[in-house]
Amino acid sequence: MTLTYHLQIVNLLAALLLLISFAMLSQRRIAGLITLFAWQGAALAASTALIAWSTNQHHLYYSAALTLVLKVIAMPWYFFRIVRKLDVDRDVEPMINIPTTMLIGIVLVIFAFNLALPISELSGTVTRSTLGIALACVLLAFLMMITRSKAIPQVIGFLAMENGLFFAATSATYGMPLVVELGVALDVLVGVFVLGIFFFQIRETFDSLDLKHMEKLKEK
Amino acid sequence: MSVGILLQLAQSLLAILLAPLLMGWVNQCHAWLQGRSAPPITQPYRTLKKLFHKDAVIAHHASPLFRFAPYMIFACMALAAGIVPTIANDLPFSPAADVIALVGIFALARVFLALAAMDIGTAFGSLGARREMLVSFLAEPALLMVFFTASLISQSTELPIIVQTMAHSKFAIYPSLAFAAVAFWMISVAENARIPVDNPSTHLELTMIHEAMILEYSARHLALIEWAVALKLFTYSALGIALFVPWGIAAQGDVAAIPLALLAMVAKLLIGGAVLAFLETISAKVRLFRAPEFLGTAFLLAVLGMLIHFLLEV
Amino acid sequence: MATLSLLSPDPVQWAWGIVLFWLSLGFASLLLQGSQRLLTGLVFPLGALGALAIAGVGIAGLTGPATSIVLPIGLPDLPFHLRLDALSAFFMVLLGGAAFGITVYASGYFKSMAAGPLALLALWYHLFLGGMVTVLLADDAYAFMVAWEVMALSSYFLVTTDHKVPEIRRAGFLYLLIAHVGAVSLLLTFGVLQGGHGDYTFDTMRLAQTPPFWASVAYLLALFGFGAKAGLVPLHVWLPEAHPAAPSPVSALMSGVMLKTAIYGLLRVTFDLLNIQIGWWGTLALALGLITALYGVIFAAVQSDMKRLLAWSSIENIGVIIAAFGLTLIFHTDGKGALAALTLTAMLYHALNHAFFKGLLFVGTGSVLHATGVRHMGHLGGLMRFMPWTAWLTLIGALAIAGLPPLNGFVSEWLLLQAFLLTPGLSQPYLNMVIPVAAAIVALAAALAAYVMVKFFGVVFLGQPRDTALQDAHEAGWPERLGMLWLAAGCVLLGLFPAQVIGWLSPVVRLLTEQTMVNDGNWLMLAPVSSERASYMPLIFFAVVIGVLGLTYLWVRRVYHGRVRRSDPWDCGYPEQDARMQDSAEGFGQPIRQIFEVFMKVERETPDPFSRTPRYHGASLDKLWFILYEPIARVTGWLSEQAGRLQHGRIQWYLIYSFATLIFLLVFTTR
Lengths: 220, 314, 671
Prior knowledge:
The complex is a heterotrimer.
Chain A: H1 5-26, H2 30-55, H3 59-86, H4 98-122, H5 131-147, H6 151-173, H7 178-206
Chain B: H1 2-33, H2 43-53, E1 56-59, H3 64-83, H4 99-119, H5 123-154, H6 159-168, H7 175-191, H8 210-213, H9 219-244, H10 258-282, H11 291-312
Chain C: H1 11-31, H2 36-63, E1 67-74, E2 79-84, H3 86-109, H4 115-137, H5 141-159, H6 166-193, H7 202-207, H8 212-230, H9 239-245, H10 248-273, H11 279-301, H12 306-333, H13 337-372, H14 383-386, H15 388-401, H16 408-421, H17 429-461, H18 478-496, H19 498-513, H20 538-559, E3 564-567, H21 585-588, H22 590-595, E4 600-605, E5 617-622, H23 623-644, H24 651-669
Helix pairs in contact in C: 1-2, 1-4, 2-3, 2-4, 3-4, 3-10, 3-13, 3-18, 3-19, 4-5, 4-10, 5-6, 5-10, 6-8, 6-9, 8-10, 9-10, 9-12, 10-12, 10-13, 11-12, 11-17, 12-13, 12-17, 13-15, 13-16, 13-18, 13-19, 15-17, 15-18, 16-17, 16-18
């Protein structure tokens, strides 16, 4: 199975995406998480651009540009600002210890790969084999959301999940219609701004961004 | 056949003779990066010569195992150096051991070193032995996973076949090999007692892993062990080159390609040594109990590489 | 079925004859209660000769066709059927080879035992040997169960030889309990296998067509029953108690040989008696085997008692064997006959290896125990100076079990890893990806086994003696040395000549999987599948290592010199040095305990800084005992108490019970 060189590089970038998802699982510091998220966005933009070039789907160039602007530049900058204002760059304590999380991660990856194999046969794109990686990224991001107990890593997990879904769309169907993409991007952007406001509120109420304190909000 | 045996002997001797030079080169690069002047690149040879001349000082109650171990370790490393293709491929010794047996050879040398460390019965000896076995019990499965990934691509665990498949087939980027390469670098750092797992030039006994095991050795025994350590680094480098950047190694029986292979090997080792020195300079040694995490990451990368092979490259 | 012929006896008749020989030796030793010299000088060596003969019969049985006889003993309509086919023959070679070395050792080891108890021990010892061989020969369920019980009971009496010590009694009780739980499961297995025909001979079971559901039930019952005897997690709890409690030659026999009879039984039921095999059986066995292997070696690393360490190591090896068994089933049910043959070869090879190196290690610890009276590694050390023979031979065993080339442990592990590497050819997608990762667990267990052996050998034999009394340790006598030499030679030869051994194994493999392993090499080279795929040449390996070693030594001596000066150890210049500054047994295992603490229940008693008599106590206990066995024991106790309510002590109530039963029977039988 000899692919053309650009498709080999797409495979390499997909593998890099998976690696970054794992690295996010094990990353202890919030600044490091944001950096990894930026790199994930960069890899995503690069692979989208490469797919656009090799299959002549021009609307993917716009998607790549959008991803670059939003996920590599705008959102990381915004998060760094929040982190500095809230002064939360301490160690993030995960719920279960890191080696166990990694093991669960590997199980999820195997699960995702096996799930994706028959589905990717149905797709007509050249990059369909990367569907498994996209699914694995989504699941790993979800795992990250579950195992973290502070607010910012959870939001980053949510955004990483969106990255994974975007990659799945790109590899299986050569992207979504541009309108849908713009809509999703706008929703995510607005959501992030709103969450940013919430961070300040949570911090003011509880003096900490640890989500354990939210449990006090239940009916006694 | 006789050409093969001559080549085999030449390759083994070359490895044994060049290994200290590689150490000298790495030290030289360290010095350049740290802005100081280094001893000449042939300094390791002088150290060895000095050590061989000395009288061996051995503890009263050292057992014959203590005196036998350095020879055993050196012999194991020499065998390993003979098996890994550095300039020529498919030499007569290579069917004797495949990659799994290579892991076994390293394990044999390591166990003898650990036992020799425990032989004198000092606190540092058993400390070194315990730490070395800790690092190795995590490094071995990771190394095996790296080899599995390489063998899945070339459908064989024989090093000559792996090299042949990689070197002589069409150039292709294998993401699984990229992961395996990073994992291999991390494992070789741990196994060769380099930063960030162990500091080869530390003088603080409580931070030592490898050095603590050889504290009681002197003279020719120490010389053999130092030589074996240099040979191990050389072999690991050659192994990494053979698995991941094998272009230039002469094919079986192709004597005319040997000079080019020699040149290619020297060039790759120079670059590799410099990269090692650079990476060592920018990292700090990790705490001992972070070493399992370090190796766990290597293991994870190797497993990921293997899984990605199944997904993307089958 | 051949009739007993004295002119040209079949191998099976020879085997039965040797069993009878052993039984008569055992009973004869009861008459020799007065003479310790005769017992150790005559009875045990004769027993050893019997073991050698059994090995010979096994070799004959491997090459010839299956032979069987019917004995005149047994039930009225089910006399004992005995059969010797390739599978039985292989395990007989294993038993004979290991038992010969161990019994030769025992004839020297028991010289310090009083004649009375020794005579009794000799009886149980030979009954044990005879029982094991009969298990291997049995061709019907009744003979099998009788032999199985003889094996269990005689080993119980052997384990409780020192019955005055309460821990040993407790260990024996636990052993007997789990052995019988397993035996009940085996009875049920045979019940399922006979499928309602009422004929319990294996021949009938072979021909019966068991429906898949009942076949699975039979397999699960067999896995439970044989797993209880083999020490599969979670039925392993008796092993670390019983094996250390027994005298060392008995521990060696139990670990090296008895556990393999359970493997034999599992192979017999799954591949021979059941006519179909189903895929998920293999996955289950593989998973259980890997868990057992990892669990065993983790606990071995944290033990301070040298015999418990070896017992846990046996659990690890059994785990590897069962994992190989599971992989064989997976390949077999997927239609990959050649790969199943390779994996089965690896499994049988590992069983054979384990008998030799574990036997060697246990008898080595026996010598240490004999010489020092101490089992706790924290009181040993530096014994290499006082017991060089024991030390060097035990070193061979330790290197072998750590899986280091060119010894035998490496060969079976290499074959197994090669088999794992071939799994991408499977048709099931999940298994494709998961099994190579499972190979990492085997590699992890092997690497930890090396850790455990460095700890074992280093703490016991190397370093400085941790107790001044150790200066009086004496070397083992000549029978012990000969026994250990035999076992060590076995380890070396099995490692250097794998192609021959695989040739001997091929009749067994062909019997069970209808194919044999492909060896693309010759007597020098081992190349499963093909020589391009993988190859290993142990003799060349060994020769090159020895050659380079010799050359280096000569060169250094020639060009430089060989002068040596003796002095105190350097120890970084610290002036105060003491033998107690070395690692203790707990200390050496501390990193493993720290990493794997989640599986253990760690008890630690650390001294208070202001205490006048500081005391440190640390123990890493098996968590499964506390989360599985103690609740079961509590529930059983509660149930028994409830049943105990029936006992009032008043006669009227007992009369009412009898009266009610009478009425009940009258009503329901006259319907």
